[in-house]
């Protein structure tokens, strides 16, 4: 790692929440950082930060007051411009629906060097917790990650329904609770069986994680009736009913 007078930023994926899933490189960066800007869902690993480091909460959670992305990016630049070592701690893997690109653009514009340290994705952790693989040689040879909402909080209008309704793919929907009923309706209208196995994983990697197996139709009906504020993933496809 090359350090400059302008400081250095390490984007660190903290994994889904279980501190034991943190990588050795991530631990090393946390232990040497002068400042850690962290998301809400990554706070469980802050015990690895060195004593005296600035710990700054910059998390964004749907439906809750949170800093704008522009503010977070500017804050990251300002810390690095002080000539210190900064960790930007993001939950799961920083490159998967973690708003990583916006912050990279800000650092590049300011001429600040950085690195990206991958973390265990919540999708992989959810599958592992359910004791199932994400792929199968003959019937699930493709995995796709999609977001459950766009910048407005609604289901994205531009959706590749042929891909999303592929019965031979494993699909993982991030941030799905509010919009999955509408997505399920579109999936069924596009030819996917309402009995397609589905799994909702809540608080993955935390002591109170829960895994519930269902079907896309049953899960959509359940979420239509109401849901908790716990962070969740929904996985659907041929492997979700594997025991």
UniProtKB/TrEMBL annotation:
GO molecular function, one term: uroporphyrin-III C-methyltransferase activity
Transferase in keyword set: yes
CDD domains: SUMT
GO biological process, one term: siroheme biosynthetic process
EC number: 2.1.1.107
Domain Tetrapyrrole methylase: 9-220
InterPro entries associated with the record: 4pyrrol_Mease, 4pyrrol_Methylase_sf, 4pyrrole_Mease_sub1, 4pyrrole_Mease_sub2, CobA/CysG_C, Siro_Cobalamin_biosynth, Uropor_MeTrfase_CS
Pathway: Porphyrin-containing compound metabolism; siroheme biosynthesis; precorrin-2 from uroporphyrinogen III: step 1/1
Assigned keywords, A-Z: Methyltransferase, Porphyrin biosynthesis, S-adenosyl-L-methionine, Transferase
Protein family (similarity comment): Belongs to the precorrin methyltransferase family.
Name the record gives this protein: uroporphyrinogen-III C-methyltransferase
Organism: Sphingomonas aurantiaca
Lineage: Bacteria, Pseudomonadati, Pseudomonadota, Alphaproteobacteria, Sphingomonadales
């Amino acid at each position: 790692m090359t350090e400059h007078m302008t400081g250095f930023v390490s984007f660190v994926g903290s994994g889904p929440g279980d501190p034991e899933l943190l990588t050795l490189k991530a631990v090393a960066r946390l232990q040497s950082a002068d400042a850690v800007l962290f998301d809400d869902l990554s706070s469980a690993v802050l015990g690895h930060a060195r004593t005296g480091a600035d710990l700054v909460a910059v998390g964004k959670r749907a439906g809750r007051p949170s800093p704008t992305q522009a503010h977070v990016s500017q804050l990251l630049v300002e810390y690095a411009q002080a000539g210190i070592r900064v960790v930007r701690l993001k939950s799961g893997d920083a490159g998967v629906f973690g708003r990583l690109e916006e912050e990279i653009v800000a650092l590049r514009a300011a001429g600040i060097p950085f690195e990206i340290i991958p973390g265990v994705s919540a999708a992989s952790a959810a599958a592992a917790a359910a004791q199932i693989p994400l792929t199968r040689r003959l019937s699930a040879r493709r995995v796709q990650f999609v977001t459950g909402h766009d910048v407005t909080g609604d289901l994205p209008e531009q959706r590749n329904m042929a891909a999303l309704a592929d019965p031979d793919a494993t699909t993982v929907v991030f941030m799905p609770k509010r919009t999955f009923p509408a997505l399920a309706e579109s999936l069924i209208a596009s030819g996917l069986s309402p009995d397609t196995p589905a799994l909702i994983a809540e608080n993955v990697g935390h002591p109170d994680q829960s895994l519930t197996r269902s079907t896309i139709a049953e899960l959509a009906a359940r979420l239509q009736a109401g849901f908790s504020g716990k962070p969740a993933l929904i996985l659907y496809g041929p492997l979700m009913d594997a025991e």
